[in-house]
Amino acid sequence: MDERENPMSDAAASRGDDPGASPTGSPSPERTPATRRAADGHVDLQDAGSMRALAHPLRLRILGLLRLEGPHSVGMLVEATGAASGSISYHLGTLAKHGFVVPAPERERDGRERWWKSAHQITVLHAEDYLGDPERREAAEAMRRTVLESYHRELLDALDAELSLEPEWVAASDSSDGAAHLTVDEMRELTADLDAVHEKWWARGRERRPGTRTVRWITHVFPRSES
Q1: Among residues 119, 144, 157, 188, which one has the fewest Cβ atoms lying within 10 Å of its Cβ?
Q2: Is residue 24 over pLDDT 70?
């Protein structure tokens, strides 16, 4: 399973696709202690420490804001999240330590407040690579559980927000699921089909345009337990 954190998320979504693949080619072999970096804006998590760094809901939200909205000052992140400035600074330091965010000094006007930006657009996690490594497997599971919990909160928030939306936006929304009896090759094909849809709309909606709103999608493809 190859899971990606979607850049169009305040809390980082997972996206499946063919293991090891990226939209523009294979990840670069260049490595840091925390990650394997790819030239196309992806970062491939490789160690337990970097996974644990993202196993925190506020850090995921900060990273999602920087990826979706662009560089932020600490004050802007305080306003967006409601967290204390000291907490924001601490979590930014943790994200920076593991290479997920970098300073954005070009945005600083008077030097009184630091600005930060995301270092990558998508985080890739190959869960199948860690099945025989207890430390990395546990760290990856903790991160994935945090992401799934963030989905639950986000979906409930979206339900509450419907009262403030125009009827046409509510009518255009969708919440659905499905199941089918598939071989592993067919499951890979399904995952690839969904990923192609994600890529199409992500590419079209990278920049804000008149009449647009941030639209989220969350999909999962997984084999159901037979027990």
Answers
A1: 157
A2: no
Is residue 43 within 8 A of residue 120, CB to CB? The reply is: yes
DSSP-derived 3-state class of residue 87: helix
Give CA separation, 5 vs 104, 134, 212, in Å: 22, 22, 22
For residue 78, what are its two tokens? 């305080």
Instruction: Quick: pLDDT tens for 73-118.
Output: 999 999 999 999 999 999 999 999 999 999 998 887 776 789 999 9
Q: In Å, what is the CA distance from 172 to each residue of 109, 152, 165, 181, 209?
A: 41, 20, 11, 29, 18
Closest CA to 203 of 13, 12, 17, 24: 24
Q: Which residues contact 41 (CB under 8 A, 6 or more apart)?
A: 120, 121, 122
Please give the residue that has the higher pLDDT: either 105 or 24: 105
Predicted confidence at residue 41, as pLDDT, reads 79
- Quote the pTM value: 0.77
Helical spans, DSSP H, in 82-183: 85-97, 134-161, 167-171
Separation of alpha carbons 57 and 17, rounded Å: 24
